[in-house]
Design goal:
The protein is an alpha+beta fold. Helices cover 48% and strands 13% of the residues.
Length: 192
């Protein structure tokens, strides 16, 4: 068997992350379907022999790289730990910039905040609070982002129209001095 082709197929199965047909892989990689099947079956047998953490599942005519069932609880704990991390003030700033002005690009969010926000945007996408809204017809075709239905559920909103127009005092976690809010612009104006 060709080890380079097997490793390439393993990389493809890992990157796809969901069941994929051998026909689709064969078409994309300009290989025969029989060759793809044969190589994946060989990889599958090899992984089973090693009895490591990974396996290749055959699901309704499609293949998927997966972890073995015995690691389910440990994976679930780590995934839940990552999901349950509270939002940082920086993440809330990014959410506000997107929610009040969507769809927006990463560059727009960084302009509003004045700092790099790519990592925060990636985390918010992973948490399901932001999603891609498409690509702009500009040089580089930047991705624009918008909030999700999960964002609305998380913040107890039925629509974006329910977003507050001024910053509520509770956001700061303490009572603010009386003169703090004097002359405060509407929150949505500060993001334009």
């Amino acid at each position: 068997m060709n080890t380079n082709l097997e490793q390439m197929l393993l990389a493809v199965l890992f990157a796809v992350g969901e069941p994929v047909s051998p026909e689709k892989i064969a078409s994309a990689l300009d290989m025969s379907t029989d060759s793809v099947r044969s190589l994946i079956e060989h990889l599958r047998d090899m992984l089973d022999t090693q009895d490591g953490a990974l396996q290749i599942l055959y699901l309704g005519g499609q293949y998927q790289l997966s972890t073995r069932e015995r690691y389910t609880e440990d994976i679930r704990k780590v995934m839940n730990e990552r999901r349950n991390v509270p939002l940082t003030p920086a993440a809330l700033e990014v959410l506000a910039a997107v929610a009040y002005n969507q769809p927006v690009t990463r560059a727009y969010v960084e302009q509003v905040r004045g700092v790099d926000s790519s990592g925060i945007i990636t985390n918010l996408v992973e948490k399901g609070l932001l999603e891609e809204a498409g690509r702009l017809d500009l040089p580089g075709r930047p991705i624009s982002y918008k909030t999700t239905a999960h964002f609305l559920r998380t913040f107890g909103l039925s629509s974006l129209e329910e977003l507050p127009l001024t910053i509520p005092e509770e956001v700061f976690g303490e009572e603010l001095p009386d003169d703090f809010l004097e002359g405060q612009m509407e929150f949505s104006d500060t993001l334009n």
